[in-house]
Design brief:
Elements: H1 5-12, E1 16-18, E2 35-37, E3 40-44, E4 47-53, E5 56-61, E6 77-84, E7 87-93, E8 104-109, E9 116-123, E10 127-136, E11 139-146, E12 148-150, E13 162-167, E14 170-175, E15 179-181, E16 189-191, E17 196-201, E18 204-209
Antiparallel strand pairs: 1-3, 2-8, 3-4, 4-5, 5-6, 6-7, 8-9, 9-10, 10-11, 12-15, 13-14, 14-17, 15-16, 17-18
Length: about 210
């Protein structure tokens, strides 16, 4: 089933409901540290359209937006759309999340700039980790995946336990709980929260294992 522009128009005129995230942090955190923010949303069918700013919206959907699904690009994906006078325009379309049941977003901002970070959980009966998107104005970059979950029998999401900090142009992702690395994979292993971090630098996300 294709996602047509008519769907976007209808969605953008629907009733707005505010979605509250459950991982809010304190207001007195350091200026360079990202905190969870709330975005209002509009419902259309099974999809939520999150209002970014002005006439820009995010939607997380398993529909291919008018393009045929292929064996390399399927599953839930992120779209950034802009509402225009005579319809809506897709500004960004990520790759699909393959067999993941979910692409569940949490939004982060700091007090220094207008950039936005989205951590979108992927997984099935357990978490596989979180896809990372960096947004500046209308530019979206799909930078990679935090391939970790919390060290627990049910491998819950790591997102409530991530510390995101900016240093210059670099962004660091560190953790408050011990982790499963590559959860559910053939190389799944326990790892201490102090032994792993991710750094976004020069438009690339790098995993760092500390021996």
């Amino acid at each position: 089933m294709n996602l047509r522009c008519a769907l976007f128009i209808a969605a953008l005129s629907s009733v707005i409901s505010v979605v509250y995230c459950s991982y809010l942090t304190a207001d007195n955190q350091p200026e360079n540290q990202y905190k969870v923010v709330q975005l209002s949303s509009q419902t259309s069918g099974q999809d939520l359209f999150y209002h970014f700013k002005d006439n820009l919206y995010f939607v997380f959907t398993d529909k291919p937006s008018g393009e045929s699904i292929n064996k390399f690009d399927y599953g839930k994906r992120l779209l950034l759309i802009r509402k225009e006078a005579n319809g809506s325009k897709i500004l960004f379309r990520s790759l699909g999340s393959a067999d993941s049941y979910i692409l569940r977003p949490t939004f982060f901002k700091n007090n220094r700039d207008d950039s936005l970070i989205i951590l979108a959980e992927i997984g099935t009966e357990y978490s596989w980790g979180a896809r990372v998107f960096v947004i500046r104005n209308e530019w979206v970059q799909d930078v990679g995946t935090l391939e970790v979950a919390v060290q627990d029998n049910k491998a819950p999401s790591v997102i409530p336990h991530v510390i995101i900090q900016r240093s210059g142009e670099d962004i660091t992702f560190e953790f408050k709980k011990d982790l499963l690395h590559n959860p559910g994979g053939t190389t799944e292993t326990d790892i201490s929260k102090n032994k792993i971090k991710y750094i976004y630098k020069n438009d690339k996300l790098t995993e760092i294992i500390i021996n």
